[in-house]
Specification:
Distance between the termini: 19 Å
Order of helices and strands: EEHEEHHEHHEEEHEHEH
Number of strands: 10
Shape: elongated
CATH class of the largest domain: Alpha Beta
Number of helices: 8
Radius of gyration: 30 Å
Helix content: 25-40%
Largest sheet: 6 strands, mixed
Strand content: 15-25%
CATH architecture of the largest domain: 3-Layer(aba) Sandwich
CATH superfamily of the largest domain: Ribosomal protein L4/L1
Length: 268
């Protein structure tokens, strides 16, 4: 199966044979599983201090005629600390126990808990191939909300000159040559998140836009990320998280010709 190669001006300049990855079966269930496994590796372990809620001098006895005994006082068997005393009169409050104010947790989380998920190598590679194939199917790309009805072809392959662009405004001009204005407008929209996350450095929810796949570290790799929602990745670092954000396949991908040629040698 062949695909057209376009210049940065939007004109057809040749053809290239697509790698076998674009003929792979789209397995949405497998892509989702691999995505969840990759996301679990980002989680930070959490736990509690072993002495949390236990730094109290507590007293508990129901024996008769014992110092500070609660025998006959009608109190429950709760560890207590002395809040105030007057001679042999004590005012005690609950402490240490899980059901008391400032007490320990009953079953706190522990750092030893395994929170990351494993995935087989063959499944991970098949998921990448499947996500690549999904990026080449227009119906899946449109289902993600991308505005690419006017794009000449999917997958979209552009000559290597695009890798040498040094300014973001030049890259935006190239995208407009391929009639991607509506896609750029879509990714500019931001929504304020609900909840406390907006007070913690993640105030806005942004939409995922175009993904640029390049063959090497270049100027395009640096400037593409200045466009809202757009990402750039080197082919050797390509994974399911970038091809299927949120575990849903069908992200619109722009390939350079060199990246397509190099992909033929990667059987994944």
């Amino acid at each position: 199966m062949n695909a057209n190669v376009y210049s940065i001006n939007g004109q057809k300049i040749g053809e290239v044979e697509l790698p076998m990855h674009f003929s792979e079966e789209v397995r949405e269930d497998l892509i989702r599983r691999v995505f969840i496994a990759l996301e679990s590796h980002k989680k930070q372990t959490q736990g509690r201090d072993e002495l949390a809620g236990k730094k109290k001098v507590v007293w508990l006895t129901k024996e008769r005629r014992r110092y500070k005994s609660v025998y006959g006082a009608g109190r429950s068997r709760t560890p207590r600390k002395t809040l105030m005393r007057r001679g042999m009169q004590f005012h005690l409050v609950g402490a240490f126990a899980p059901h008391t104010v400032g007490g320990r947790e009953a079953h706190p989380p522990r750092t030893e808990k395994v929170i990351f998920k494993k995935i087989n190598k063959k499944e991970r590679k098949k998921a990448i191939r499947s996500a690549i194939a999904a990026s080449g199917k227009k119906e899946l790309v449109l289902s993600r909300g991308h505005k690419v009805n006017d794009v000449p072809e999917i997958p979209l392959i552009i000559e290597d000159k695009i890798e040498n662009l040094k300014k973001t405004k030049d890259l935006i001009k190239v995208l407009k040559n391929f009639r991607l204005e509506k896609e750029l407008e879509r990714t500019e929209e931001k929504k304020i998140k609900a909840g406390k996350g907006k007070f913690r450095g993640r105030r806005y929810k942004e939409k995922k836009g175009i993904l640029f796949v390049v063959s090497k570290y270049c100027d395009l790799y640096k400037i593409a990320r200045n466009i809202p929602g757009c990402d750039a990745v080197i082919l050797k670092d390509l994974n399911v998280e970038q091809l299927a954000p949120g575990g849903k396949p069908g992200r619109f991908v722009i390939w350079t010709k060199s990246a397509i040629e190099e992909l033929k040698n990667k059987f994944l």
